[in-house]
Amino acid sequence: MKKIKVVELFAGVGGFRLGLENSSKKIFHTVWANQWEPKKQKQHAFNCYNHNFGNSKNHSNQDIAVAKFEMPNNIDLLVGGFPCQDYSVARTQAAGIQGEKGVLWWEISWIIKEKKPKMILLENVNRLLKSTKTHKGRDFGIILRDLYNNGYYVEWRVINAAEYGLQQKRRRIFIFAYKKDINFFNIKNANFDNALDLIQKNGFFAKSFKIIKEITLDNIKEIDIKEKFIDLADVSDNFKFDFENSGCMIDSKIFTTNATPYSNQPKNLENIILNTEVEEKYFLTKTQELKLSLLKDRKRIQRTKPNGDIYYYSEGKMSFPDRIDSPARTMLTSEGTINRSSHIIEDPKTKKLRFLTPIETERINGFPDNWTNTDMPERFRYFCMGNALVVDLIKIMGDTIQEIWNQKYNQAKANKKISIVETMLIN
Ligand SMILES: C[S@@+](CC[C@H](N)C(=O)[O-])C[C@H]1O[C@@H](n2cnc3c(N)ncnc32)[C@H](O)[C@@H]1O
């Protein structure tokens, strides 16, 4: 089978690349990768990436806004987990539209426009579907309209890794888009039946992550992003939509519904944590224990709004220590610090309370032990894992990409005519 040429953006320590290579190192060939930690002299994640995948002139360590000009053409698959920001756009004087400066979506958008990757796989926090606060769904609407303008079909799904047999309750949105000429799933019309078929049965996410087949045409919502909105700026100003956890865009029609995962038994923390002796520095001192027990306790705090109004901020009680007979909670970049969200476990050997070790955080994301043990301070090892993703999910998606790519390629060959698809796949 022909290699799939991959470009990895916002590469961090290489979660996408590792997942795809776990699917097939022969097929997925990363031709270019970019990682740059803003405002940091030491580029720990980039160094870790090079340590694990080897130094290469095709690994770029510059702001993507600058580095994008070096990117090769002919990209089969563009991947990346990008920061979630406010994506609003404004009309320029020339009546064109322009994204807010410094918002990374517009870098991705530029790359899509210029390089026309055949497939795109993106990851973000699931909050993306709901943002902004005042225009619910607007930011995702902008992304979809932008992809529509560039000729893509799109599918998305919010996936909680623990619901698919994995070791972390990490809920993230994944977006898979592909050039509509490739039409992986042979969709003829943008209608409810085809949307239902994609979401529930035969589409990219349905193939990768089974759901309970209970969706009916009655619980799918639809909106046409072109019919009702003149352009991106119009979407930016006026779009509001209640996106559900799964959906697709066929031509300019967006369909969305709530999918229930066909849950597999997750892996629990007890299967991950070290049962060997752990260094003393990971164990809590009495003061740390007291601070953390307070941080994780229930609270109701009186606060004052800028206008002087009083309100109460409340937080529920968290399990302290964390249960090890369930998967890890979502790891954040603050993991391993005195923070409410850090995992604290009872060490299986000593029965004393301790933080997770960096190796354990790597296992929670499905990275090999010591992946980030690459000369970076320990604090950054936790930070990088908080930023990364559950690699096993990307492996599953990589398997599906191979399957649909192969099918399309063989189909094009069997047809024995140089169709657009064949030309696209062959080039
Ligand atoms: C959500 S993380 C992605 C982590 C990655 N998927 C992994 O497995 O480690 C986003 C990454 O984008 C990088 N980044 C942020 N701004 C950037 C920019 N302007 N140019 C290039 N990379 C940037 C951050 O340093 C961070 O590593």
Question: How would you describe this protein?
Answer:
The chain has 427 residues and is α/β, with parallel strands linked by helices. The protein has two domains: 4-264 and 390-426, Rossmann fold (3-Layer(aba) Sandwich); 269-387, DNA Methylase, subunit A, domain 2 (DNA Methylase, Chain A, domain 2, Alpha-Beta Complex), CATH 3.90.120.10. Helices cover 30% and strands 19% of the residues. Strands 3-2-1-4-7-9-8-11-12-10 form a ten-stranded mixed beta sheet, with helices on both faces. It has a two-stranded antiparallel ribbon with strand order 5-6. A two-stranded antiparallel sheet has the order 13-14. β15 and β16 form a beta hairpin. The longest helix has 25 residues, at 391-415. It binds S-adenosylmethionine. S-adenosylmethionine binds at residues 10-16, 34-38, 45, 63-64, 81, 83, 387-389. The active site is at residue 84. It is an enzyme of class 2 (transferase). Its EC number is 2.1.1.37.
